[in-house]
Amino acid sequence: MTDLTLTRADRYERLTRIRATRPEEIAHAAARRQRRGLPGDGERLMIIAADHPARGSLGVRDRPFAMASRTDLLDRLQLALERPGVHGILAAPDVLEDLLLLGALEGKLAFGSMNRAGIQGAVFELDDRFTGFDAAAIDAMRLDGGKMLCRIDPADHGTVATLESCAHAVTDLARRRLVAMVEPFWSSRADGGAVRNDLSPEAVIRAISVGQALGATSAYTWLKIPAIPEMERVMAATTLPALLLGGDPPDIDAAFADWGRALELPGVRGLVVGRALLYPPDDDVAAAVDGAATLVREASR
């Protein structure tokens, strides 16, 4: 647990010291962490996402290095996790381990990010190999599931390897009765070489159709999908639970409106939002998180 008598500087100095001298404390913290269960019938989840830095994605709107300071990011994550109505976090191993050592994950859901090799802007960006958690590590750390990015580009030969790897991860997680959070996109490269996700209803439906069929069973598969126009059509493509992703919306008010409408649909089970809430335009993290949590709470009634 966090020692509230320590100053901020002391807490981070202690964190760095433990990592250097007693790394086994990470496993001990994971073993003793108080967990919470998955949602009951009608309950919707509010999850904070923090796995962007692991693939070099540090920017938020016009701030290219907004997420560059790890201690600032941890401050924001701890503040978000303390807000009423926030159920848990999705993050890569390094961030989750920091939060474990800080005592910030008690009574929270924790999902591990699994494939982060598709570095933003790289020539191999669509090669989403598994470089983070695997199912065995997620199970050993007593996490609640794993998340995988699954970008599908029919013009990229590497897509088939991503599909195969995601299928193995879904199967391995299901064997342990752990949630497999699949984030499917229909993607392509623009003329300048940048990867673009097609957010038309037709493309999202097609991506869902492929993503939900990965693995030997879909019993423990959840989807992580964008909130877009015509969400009724999109959600008609699946019977699986779906969580709405946040992304980096240029208009946060419009994003809130989109999330609110989509949360009313029966298959939508909550939000997984990171940058939009951790780095809001006015930098008021608590207010942004509280606003999103209110949407989720109202949709659960």
Describe this structure in words.
- The protein has helices at residues 8-21, 25-32, 70-82, 93-101, 135-140, 159-175, 201-211, 231-235, 252-263, 275-278, 285-299, and strands at 45-50, 88-91, 109-113, 145-152, 179-189, 195-198, 221-226, 242-245, 268-273.
- With 301 residues, it is of the alpha/beta class.
- An eight-stranded parallel β-barrel has the order 1-2-3-4-5-7-8-9, surrounded by six helices.
- The longest helix has 17 residues, at 159-175.
Q: Spatial order of the strands in the main sheet? A: 1-2-3-4-5-7-8-9
Kindly report the average pLDDT value: 95
Figure out the total of helices.
Answer: 11
- Shape annotation: globular
Order of helices and strands: HHEHEHEHEHEEHEHEHEHH
**Helix proportion:** 25-40%
